[in-house]
Amino acid sequence: MPNPVVNKASTEWNGELFTGSGTTTLETSGKATFDVAWKSRGEEQGGGTTTPEELIAAAHATCYAMQFSNMLKENGTPPTQLNTSAAVTFVAGTGITGIELTVRGTVEGIDAATFDDLARQAKETCPVSQALSATEITLADVQLA
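The chain above was modelled as a monomer; its predicted structure follows.
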């Protein structure tokens, strides 16, 4: 069994929910730090900061593209290009109410029915899809500073 790979991100939040703000950092890659605030999440789409749902959408679109590309390769029809997106819907007071994946692909030697079937299988077997349907989330460490 291969060694597990652990990726990390962190958020520093200042203040209360509605007037506070923070930053989320991709720690493992060190590639980005994003501003986060409630206004973009629950009041005004595209308000200049990112949201947990946008980050989930990015992770899901990426994972899905990777899973689908591998399934197409295993089918003997590796893709030339896949364009994937994920739209995560959030309703204040309710939470995440749905995720819609879309994919457009350029793949030689495959018919539409097989492409569709593999696309649906990739949605079910994508590790992020599976993680989002998981019921167990652990809280490993809690300390009051």
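The chain has a mean pLDDT of 92.
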